[in-house]
Each structure stands twice: as C-alpha cells, then as structure tokens.
Design goal:
The protein is an alpha/beta fold and about 350 residues long. It is built from 13 helices and eight strands. It has helices at about 25-30, 45-55, 70-85, 95-110, 160-180, 185-210, 215-230, 235-250, 255-270, 275-285, 290-300, 315-325, 340-350; strands at about 10-15, 35-40, 60, 90-95, 110-115, 125-130, 135-140, 150. The strands form two sheets. The chain has a six-stranded parallel sheet, with helices on both faces. Strands 6-7 form a two-stranded antiparallel sheet. Helix 5 (about 160-180) packs parallel to helix 9 (about 255-270). The longest helix has 23 residues, at about 185-210. The two termini are about 25 Å apart.
C-alpha cells in the first residue's frame, strides 16, 4: 500500500427523494436570511418558483448562468448580490449554475447552497473555473466549496435523456482520473469505484426509462461519490483537455467529457494498472485493458455524441487545442508528449473506437 495523506473536506449533504422540503431548515443552519437564487435562463421558471416559495427569504433571482462561467457573468452576479443585499446564494441547476455560484463565493465570500439537477459533481469540489478572453482558468479555493448540498433525485426526473447520459459520463470521468491521481488514497479509490459502478448500472436504465425513480437516485448517488473524488485529488490529462476544449472553443462541457474520456483512458491506463483493475471491476469486465473500449461502447449504446467534430470542433482546431493543453506540465500516469496527445485528440475528433490500453 502506498503512503498517503487524507484530509476530508466536504459540504453538508442532504440526500433523498423530496429532500428539497428541508431547504428552509438548511438556510437557517447557514445563518442566512436573504438568498439570491442562481440558474441558467432555461431554468429560470424553477428559480422563480423557488423564490416564490421562500417569500421574504428570497432576495431575488439571477438567471443568467452560462457555460464555462465567463468573467462578465460572474461580475454581473456579484453586482446583483450586492444590490439586493443577499447573504447567501442558492445554485439551482448543473455545472454552469454551480460554477457561477463558486465564482460569486470567490469574490464576495457568500456561502453557497447547491441544489444539483444534473450529475456534474461540481457541487462537491473546491475547484472553480472562469473564462476570460477565450481561456478558461481553473483553480482551487476552499471558499468556493458549497456549505450545503441538497440531493433530491426527483429534481432530475425531467433532465433530458441526452443530458442525463453525458452528465453521467462526465461524472465517471471524475472518478476515473481520481483512481490514477498522484494524490489518491484508499478511501477515495473505494468511492471512485462504487461511483462508477452506480452510474454504469443506472445510465442504461435511464436511457430506456427516464422516469425510473430508483435509477435517478442511483445516478445521483454515483455523481455524489464521483464529485467527492474530484474535489480531493489533482486531475490529469483528461480534465486538462476538456477544460481547453470548453474554455477556448466553447464546446459543451458534459458532451466534451463523454467524447474524450475513452481516448484519455486508452492513453493512460496502460501506465496505471491498479486504476485499470478497479475500473474493470466497476464495469463488470475481466480484462482491464478493455476498459477504454467498453466505455466507448457504453457511450455509443446510450446515444451520446462520439466525436469532437459532432460538437463543433474544426479540423484546424486540433493542433491549437494540443498546443494549449501542452503549455504546462502536470501529474499524469503517462509522460506527456505533444505527438501522442495530438494523436489522442485526432482520434477523439474523428470518433474512432480506442484500442486496448497500452
């Protein structure tokens, strides 16, 4: 067993069907009285309904969250919070909204209560990302970690199948990279393996029966575990590539993760045998070398996008994306060289099935 240091850092978690009924209690526990409710424009109706429910406890609604948290959006949210004299923020939605909440917490110090409606997992991490002048800058800061997370599977029951699939694959990516992170530990390994197992069991059910309550709960449980792993380890090549593709080329976040993941694992798992074994167990495979191909097959069977070309990346962008991703070195199981990373991106661009990990 390798040496490790483990210091848990986690929000208060309230999990269960109809857990949203505890919202007022959780606001009280934060010592807050005026909540600014954040959402994306498509979820504005839900945000306003939440504000109506809270009555005087709601300072207002800011329904302008967008992908990759442009700095202009973050600045506008802070101005609105100050104008309304909010003393906390409620982030209702997926990674875009929770990311906006984090940016707000970073600059204002407001406590965040997250109510995830997707499987992004961002609510369990102190990782933030802000896009400025076409570059997405990420960092870690304990101030951005939500104080409380309410996981209510019923809120994800209307999440479209396509987004459910890609969001779940995004969560699997968090756990997969956590398994070979330089700073992983046995507890996080257990969480990662069980998180992947829960998601690969739930997603095929949701693909066929989107309203299946137990599958929704299982997927949300898996996302919680995978997000918890992401929040406590350093990420490697997969996440660096996805941040580059999202921030610099405005590709959709979850879909980009689902496309890149099998290719990043094919690149790395031959240099991370224990991670490959755990992922194989979670996927029900006998051969660890088959993990990348099996995840590609799973994504295809669920109707996920299979290539970066489908997501809008241009052929001429592949070289640029590779160069941006290689601008700084970071821990990764396999040494990074531009030619190999360029080949990975080309395969992801074309959407070809990856071969066994080598």
């Amino acid at each position: 067993m390798k040496d490790f240091i483990y210091q848990a850092s986690s929000p208060r978690v309230v999990f269960g069907a109809d857990a949203l009924q505890h919202l007022e209690r959780e606001i009280d526990l934060l010592g807050a009285r005026r909540a600014l409710i954040l959402s994306t424009p498509p979820q504005a109706a839900g945000a306003h309904a939440l504000a109506q429910r809270l009555g005087d406890r709601a300072a207002g609604v800011f329904a302008q969250a967008v992908m990759h948290v442009p700095i202009e959006s973050a600045q506008a949210a802070r101005v609105e919070a100050e104008r309304l004299q909010a003393d906390c923020a409620i982030a209702l939605g997926g990674g875009s909204t929770i990311g906006l909440g984090k940016a707000l917490a970073l600059t204002s110090g407001l406590p965040i209560l997250a109510i995830p409606t997707t499987y992004a997992g961002s609510e369990m991490t102190p990782i933030y990302g802000i896009t400025e002048v076409g570059l997405k800058k990420t960092g870690r800061d304990p101030r951005v970690l939500p104080k409380t997370v309410i996981y209510d599977p019923t809120l994800s029951s209307t999440l479209p199948v396509a987004l459910s699939v890609c969001s779940g694959l995004n969560a699997i990516a968090h756990a997969a990279e956590g398994l070979y992170a330089a700073d992983s530990n046995p507890i996080l390994d257990l969480m990662a393996e069980d998180g992947v197992r829960a998601l690969v069991q739930a997603l095929p059910v949701l693909h066929q029966q989107p309203q299946q309550a137990e599958a929704r709960a299982q997927a949300l449980y898996g996302a919680w575990l995978c997000g918890s792993v992401l929040g406590q380890v350093s990420m490697a090549l997969h996440h660096k590539l996805c941040h580059t593709l999202g921030g610099s080329f405005n590709l959709p976040h979850a879909e980009t993760h689902s496309v890149v993941l099998p290719h990043a694992l094919a690149f790395n798992l031959g240099h991370a045998p224990q991670a490959a074994q755990r992922l194989a167990r979670a996927l029900g495979l006998d051969q660890p070398g088959a993990v990348a191909g099996a995840l590609w097959d799973l994504a295809q069977s669920l109707g996920a996008p299979m290539s970066l070309r489908e997501l809008g990346l241009q052929a001429t962008d592949v070289d640029t994306a590779c160069a941006l991703a290689m601008t700084q070195q970071y821990p990764n199981p396999r040494p990074l060289d531009a030619r190999a990373v360029r080949q990975l991106l080309q395969q992801a661009y074309e959407g070809v099935r990856p071969s066994a990990s080598t």
